[in-house]
Amino acid sequence: MTPTDLIEILEKHQSWLSNDPRGARANFTLQDLYCSSLKGVRLKGAKMAGTNLANSDLMHADLRECDLYGASLAEADLRMARLNDSDMRGVILRGANLTGAVLAGVDMREGALLKADRKKGIELVRLDYAALSVERADFSGANLAGARLSNSAIIQSDLSRAKLKGANLSGANLRKSNLSGADLTDANLENTDLSGANLAGANLRGATLKNANLTNAILRGAELEEAALDGAILDGAELLRRGSDLPTSLRNIIRNHERWIETNGRRGERADLSNADMRAVDLTNVNLSGADLSDSVMAGAVLSGAKFVMSDLHGADMTKADLAGADLKGANLTYAKFRLASLKRANLGPAELLDGNTNLGGRNWPTNLAGADMTGADLTGADFSHAITKDLVLIDAIFDHTSFTDTDIATLADAAD
């Protein structure tokens, strides 16, 4: 295509956009426009499937609603370009600069092209994805289902409501990006940097988040059922899962345990939740009395009104958990971590034991807090009566109407501080 041909097509396209009958929709299908200067050009609705636009200047270009299926935009300058609602399936974006570009509603699913060759005949061309490098781009509502975007850098970009089902974003940098309401079902986010990202209301069912960095990320209301969070960094993350978001195996254990309690052991089974990962889950009013929760992780969980009477919570991590009004009578809390947790009005007094006929027998079993860490915890109105408090750490804990009746205050480590 000669420069004269290009200018003529662009002029006719402008007329077409103005509904001038003398105009014609631009058709660059499979054309070679390598290294073209198209800065600020108005190509809304143009046909550009398979077009080679590599190394072209498309800064501020209007490419809305274009058919860019299988086009090459490798190394192209697309800063501040508008690509809203374009068909970008299989587009090659290797090295393209999309800073500030608007890609709301684009379709970027995997694609392939059929190309005619005089010698080879009809040839199926597989289109390979390469890592993107964009900042402050708008992908809101974009269809990226199944996209292969591993090791991409999509920083501070808007991916809200984006369709990313089954996408491979492993090793990608999505720092401070907005993924609220995005569909990330079965997506691969292993080793992905999601620090400071907004994932509120996102669907992460079945997603792999192994070793992902979720520091200070917002995960409020996110769907995390069957999501793999092994090794994920959740420091400062705003994360709250519903009980229904827990893996099926854990939900069944809790359900069977509650049945075991309700039937006095005739049905169901005592819960073994040792080493279980129940971080940032809402288990308000759950009854896990008598359960084995040793070394479990419930950091950031909402456990207000929960019952842990005579439960084994040795070594459990309940950092920043909400245990307001929880019943922990007679529980084994040795070496458990309650740093910055809320234990307002929690009952850590003794449990009254039953006799052989399931009647209260007058014997008390104290809560064991030996070696537990309650640094910075809010203990307002909590009852520690008769508790074993050897080596209990209470640095910077909040005391207001906290009861330590019949407790050896002298053993409370650094309580005076």
Query: Tell me about the biggest sheet?
Result: 3 strands, parallel
Which percent range fits the helix content? under 10%
User: Structural class from helices and strands?
Assistant: little secondary structure
- The chain-level mean pLDDT equals 87
N-to-C CA distance: 80 Å
Which term fits the overall shape? elongated
**Which consecutive residue ranges, at least 5 long each, have pLDDT under 50?**
112-117, 120-128, 410-417
Q: If strands are numbered along the chain, what order do they take across the biggest sheet?
A: 5-6-7
CATH architectural name of the domain at 263-417: 3 Solenoid
Number of helices: 2
Q: What radius of gyration results from the CA coordinates?
A: 30 Å
Fold-level CATH name of the domain at 263-417: Pectate Lyase C-like
CATH superfamily of the domain at 263-417: E3 ubiquitin-protein ligase SopA
Structural write-up:
With 417 residues, this protein is low in regular secondary structure. It has a domain at 263-417: Pectate Lyase C-like. Helix content is 7%, strand content 9%. It is built from 2 helices and 9 strands. It has helices at 3-17, 248-262; strands spanning 112-117, 121-126, 133-135, 153-155, 218-220, 238-242, 281-282, 351-354, 360-365. The strands form 4 sheets. The chain has a 3-stranded parallel β-sheet with strand order 5-6-7, with no helix packed on it. The chain has a two-stranded antiparallel sheet with strand order 1-2. The protein starts with a helix and ends in a 52-residue tail after the last strand. Mean pLDDT is 87; it is low at 112-117, 120-128 and 410-417.
